[in-house]
């Protein structure tokens, strides 16, 4: 019998009619022979309203414990109403909140931004499996946790997504369905560009990068808990049908540790294009990159300064790229010179944890400093760091970085 975990966001249960529509969708899946675990957020804007009330009432003189307890009321209310709605269709349901002896989500004691204790949570998830075996649909508060002292904790804004994927992992679920106010992952924000299209599929890696760069469809930490064989999709509440099409989240592509270190296997060359204040000249980057693309030369790294653009290309393409860019410099009044530099190596490190790890760059670069290794260039995003070093140092840097991060 298939087991699915369904998470309803705040907008999708924003009023009584929407809650009934959502409960009906859950009951339909249950009646088709599936086991269903429901995770609910607070009803639309409830958490914001509670925080505002606390701020006004206390002038921000409030402890983390007090604030966590107050804002937990949003999810606890949602769970009670949703379970009642399910039972109004004649199906047994039970709400599970941190005061329940069946509560599964155990965390550390960082009350307002807690980390899940996965081992303990997996043990306690047996309580949820027992309810499912009894034919009961559990409705579990998203966003909330409980530490080992029994204090209510929260998983940070958007933490209900984390709850859903953690439970799916611990229960060995077949599928996670995220029900939200959009029809899936879009090519861009449809509120900004009306022509945005829904994607049928997106990889875990792409979804994580979208989420860490501001897309609000899914909490980036949730994907840390997705197993490769777990089906997952994001759909709109408007369908009222959990089998409705949305965007499938595929992967991760391989079972691997959260930190991955890769070294580009061939030497690269550094090419620098200079010109007075070219950083402020519109179209310069487009001219450079499009000209190289025309000759099928790939750029593996690029950085800009006030008076320069630095490119990293495969060494075998370097002389050709140098000649092409020199022709561009001769023709373009905004550019003054181009040079080709030494051979370099590229090491990239990626982890979804980087966005929440202060000091990660210094942790990676400190061993290089101790070994007197010069960094030619370094670039970073919220989930990855790319380091360029002299080619002769590349293998050593690769091993140093792997050692310091415990990468695979």
UniProtKB/TrEMBL annotation:
The keyword ATP-binding applies. One of its GO terms (biological process) is threonine biosynthetic process. InterPro entries: AceGlu_kinase-like_sf (IPR036393), ACT-like_dom_sf (IPR045865), ACT_Aspartokinase (IPR054352), ACT_dom (IPR002912), Asp/Glu/Uridylate_kinase (IPR001048), Asp_kin_monofn (IPR005260), Asp_kinase (IPR001341), Aspartate_kinase_CS (IPR018042). It catalyses: L-aspartate + ATP = 4-phospho-L-aspartate + ADP. Residues 273-340, 349-408 form the ACT domain. Pathway: Amino-acid biosynthesis; L-threonine biosynthesis; L-threonine from L-aspartate: step 1/5; Amino-acid biosynthesis; L-methionine biosynthesis via de novo pathway; L-homoserine from L-aspartate: step 1/3; Amino-acid biosynthesis; L-lysine biosynthesis via DAP pathway; (S)-tetrahydrodipicolinate from L-aspartate: step 1/4. Its EC number is 2.7.2.4. Keywords: Amino-acid biosynthesis, ATP-binding, Kinase, Nucleotide-binding, Transferase. It comes from the Archaea. The keyword Nucleotide-binding applies. One of its GO terms (cellular component) is cytosol. CDD domains: AAK_AK, ACT_AK-like_2. GO terms for molecular function: aspartate kinase activity; ATP binding. Gene3D superfamilies: 3.30.70.260, Acetylglutamate kinase-like. Belongs to the aspartokinase family. This is Aspartokinase. It comes from Methanothermus fervidus (strain ATCC 43054 / DSM 2088 / JCM 10308 / V24 S).
């Amino acid at each position: 019998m298939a087991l699915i975990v369904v998470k309803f966001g705040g907008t999708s249960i924003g009023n009584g009619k929407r809650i009934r529509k959502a409960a009906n969708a859950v009951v339909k899946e249950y009646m088709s022979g599936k086991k269903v675990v429901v995770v609910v957020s607070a009803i639309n804007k409830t958490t914001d309203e509670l925080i505002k009330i606390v701020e006004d009432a206390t002038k921000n003189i409030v402890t983390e414990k007090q604030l966590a307890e107050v804002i937990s009321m949003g999810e606890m209310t949602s769970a009670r109403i949703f379970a009642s709605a399910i039972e109004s269709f004649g199906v047994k349901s039970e709400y599970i909140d941190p005061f329940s002896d069946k509560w599964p989500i155990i965390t550390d004691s960082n009350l307002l931004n807690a980390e899940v204790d996965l081992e303990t949570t997996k043990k306690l998830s047996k309580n949820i499996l027992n309810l499912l075996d009894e034919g009961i649909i559990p409705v579990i508060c998203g966003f909330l946790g409980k530490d080992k002292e029994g204090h209510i904790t929260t998983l940070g804004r958007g933490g209900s997504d984390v709850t859903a994927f953690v439970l799916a992992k611990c229960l060995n679920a077949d599928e996670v369905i995220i029900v939200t106010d959009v029809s899936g992952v879009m090519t861009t924000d449809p509120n900004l560009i009306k022509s945005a299209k829904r994607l049928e599929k997106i990889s875990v890696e792409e979804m994580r990068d979208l989420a860490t760069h501001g897309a609000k469809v899914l909490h980036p930490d949730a994907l840390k808990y997705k197993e490769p064989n777990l089906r997952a999709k994001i759909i709109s509440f408007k369908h009222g049908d959990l089998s409705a099409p949305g965007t499938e989240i595929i992967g991760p592509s391989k079972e691997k540790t959260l930190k991955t270190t890769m070294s580009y296997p061939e030497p690269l060359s550094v090419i620098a294009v200079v010109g007075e204040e070219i950083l402020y000249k519109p179209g310069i980057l487009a001219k450079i990159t499009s000209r190289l693309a025309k000759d099928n030369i790939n750029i593996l790294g690029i950085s800009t300064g006030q008076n320069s653009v630095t490119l990293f290309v495969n060494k075998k393409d370097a002389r050709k790229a140098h000649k092409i860019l020199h022709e561009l410099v001769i023709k373009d009044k905004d550019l003054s010179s181009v040079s080709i530099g030494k051979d370099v190596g590229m090491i990239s490190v990626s982890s979804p944890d980087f966005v929440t790890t202060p000091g990660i760059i210094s942790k990676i670069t400190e061993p290089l400093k101790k070994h007197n290794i010069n960094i030619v260039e370094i670039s970073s995003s919220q989930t990855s760091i790319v380091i360029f070093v002299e080619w002769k140092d590349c293998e050593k840097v690769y091993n140093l970085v792997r050692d310091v991060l415990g990468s695979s």
